[in-house]
Amino acid sequence: MTDLSKETSIFEKKVSRRGVLKAAGIGGVGAVLGASGLGGVLALSDATVTKGQSNDIVPFYGANQAGITTSPQDNLYIVSLEVTTDSKQDLIQLFKEWTEASALMTSGNTVGDTSTNGNLPPKDTGEAVGLSPSNLTITFGVGPSLFVKDGKDRFGLRSKQPAELVDLPKFPLDALKKEWTGGDLCIQACADDLQVAFHAVRNLVRMARGKAVIHWAQTGFQRTKNADAQKVTPRNLLGFKDGTVNPDVTSKSALQKSVWVQKGDGPDWLVGGSYMVVRRIQMYIEVWDRSTLNDQEATFGRHRDSGAPLGKQNEFDSADFEAVDETGRLVIPETAHMRVARGDGKHSILRRSYSYTDGMDTKTGSLDAGLVFICFQRRPSTQFIPMQQRLAKNDKLNEYIVHRGSALFACLPGVQKGGYIGETLFD
Ligand SMILES: C=CC1=C(C)c2cc3[nH]c(cc4nc(cc5[nH]c(cc1n2)c(C)c5CCC(=O)O)C(CCC(=O)O)=C4C)c(C)c3C=C
Ligand SMILES: [Fe+2]
């Protein structure tokens, strides 16, 4: 593990985003100081980290990366990047800088000392100044093409490529667009404030200048927790509760079984990491809006308002897949999304999806909206892949959706203070 403290850091001093405003004399007692001007006050300020003072910080350091089992925040900003440098050293330096910047931003700080030199661009882009940490998490992943692209071992990492980290197969009905597919690296930022998530990604991408460029970028949202004080299961844009059946993130054994890569699964560098599948799924919402409630409920196999399995009363009641109605027909149809996704129930995935909307489809004049489907798992070949193969063949939901984007990333293991994200892969 590399000791970053021994190296010259680009982030010499931590400045809390709220501290910047305080130091600038904006609001409260500080307003009295405001008249003396930003530069002068900053020179006197002793701005420190907000860590420990705020209850909306998700720790960045740990055995696993945050943003996987973290309770989903209100907003998502996810980008895939193409690496443009040929130098492994550049890549390592980038991950070191990303680690340090991420630790700062997730604890509510700006990246780098607040600049007072008017002749230089500010180190931090500034749009999160004054904003709380907002439970920001930043999760990094690497795609198959980081290892080998067009047959070329780009960074001498070929022998470290896990057998599970290969392009996803083409599934029936896939209508993928190149511009929404794949990528060498991934940054998933989630926060209860979109501006905080955007700020994080923007500053990380800015640091990658000359080393990597954006391949695709996508925002996502759920109802905000402000709008839903009860914090019940959020609804997707088809109006159904989405996320009811998921592994218990408080159960170590459930996570070991389904989410975290274990020793012996593949190369050791990924132990404590997880595979992330991202699918950009467009919904034909106008078609959906013209279908009857019965049809909609048969599509998922659940009641719309309660979220209960068909034939049951409450959202978390267990489904009866054998039950038949008075005519002898299955209550939960053979093609119901829930039934097909579950299969024999032996392999689960951790779903952490967000809705998206992106203006309109200029060809049809309808809204371009859908689901940024994201799931985490220990082994895609026995989890997401067979599940999606079943869904693509038999799911009634296919009448209303189309998969437009797809990517698979290995989310790196977590990191302790003094180390950097990716160290197990690169060192
Ligand atoms: C391959 C995996 C899955 C894709 C792709 C997928 C797309 C997708 N799902 C919904 C809405 C719902 N999904 C629900 C349940 C559910 N979905 C998957 C997997 C994929 N979904 C699983 C494993 C499950 C749980 C199955 C079970 O064991 O019961 C539900 C029901 C409520 C819930 O449990 O969350 C909804 C609603 C959409 C709209 C969508 C693509 C746009
Ligand atoms: Fe689903």
Automatic annotation (TrEMBL):
<dbReference type="InterPro" id="IPR006311">
    <property type="entry name" value="TAT_signal"/>
</dbReference>
<keyword id="KW-0349">Heme</keyword>
<keyword id="KW-0456">Lyase</keyword>
<comment type="function">
    <text>Involved in the recovery of exogenous heme iron. Extracts iron from heme while preserving the protoporphyrin ring intact.</text>
</comment>
<keyword id="KW-0472">Membrane</keyword>
<keyword id="KW-0575">Peroxidase</keyword>
<dbReference type="Pfam" id="PF04261">
    <property type="entry name" value="Dyp_perox_N"/>
</dbReference>
<keyword id="KW-0812">Transmembrane</keyword>
<dbReference type="GO" id="GO:0005829">
    <property type="term" value="C:cytosol"/>
</dbReference>
<keyword id="KW-0408">Iron</keyword>
<dbReference type="GO" id="GO:0046872">
    <property type="term" value="F:metal ion binding"/>
</dbReference>
<keyword id="KW-0479">Metal-binding</keyword>
<dbReference type="GO" id="GO:0030313">
    <property type="term" value="C:cell envelope"/>
</dbReference>
<dbReference type="GO" id="GO:0004601">
    <property type="term" value="F:peroxidase activity"/>
</dbReference>
<comment type="similarity">
    <text>Belongs to the DyP-type peroxidase family.</text>
</comment>
<feature type="transmembrane region" description="Helical">
    <location>
        <begin position="20"/>
        <end position="44"/>
    </location>
</feature>
<dbReference type="InterPro" id="IPR011008">
    <property type="entry name" value="Dimeric_a/b-barrel"/>
</dbReference>
<feature type="domain" description="Dyp-type peroxidase N-terminal">
    <location>
        <begin position="65"/>
        <end position="222"/>
    </location>
</feature>
<dbReference type="GO" id="GO:0033212">
    <property type="term" value="P:iron import into cell"/>
</dbReference>
<dbReference type="GO" id="GO:0020037">
    <property type="term" value="F:heme binding"/>
</dbReference>
<dbReference type="InterPro" id="IPR048328">
    <property type="entry name" value="Dyp_perox_C"/>
</dbReference>
<dbReference type="Pfam" id="PF20628">
    <property type="entry name" value="Dyp_perox_C"/>
</dbReference>
<dbReference type="InterPro" id="IPR019546">
    <property type="entry name" value="TAT_signal_bac_arc"/>
</dbReference>
<dbReference type="GO" id="GO:0004325">
    <property type="term" value="F:ferrochelatase activity"/>
</dbReference>
<keyword id="KW-0560">Oxidoreductase</keyword>
<protein>
    <recommendedName>
        <fullName>Deferrochelatase</fullName>
        <ecNumber>1.11.1.-</ecNumber>
    </recommendedName>
</protein>
<dbReference type="InterPro" id="IPR006313">
    <property type="entry name" value="EfeB/EfeN"/>
</dbReference>
<keyword id="KW-1133">Transmembrane helix</keyword>
<feature type="domain" description="Dyp-type peroxidase C-terminal">
    <location>
        <begin position="233"/>
        <end position="415"/>
    </location>
</feature>
<keyword id="KW-0732">Signal</keyword>
<dbReference type="InterPro" id="IPR006314">
    <property type="entry name" value="Dyp_peroxidase"/>
</dbReference>
<dbReference type="InterPro" id="IPR048327">
    <property type="entry name" value="Dyp_perox_N"/>
</dbReference>
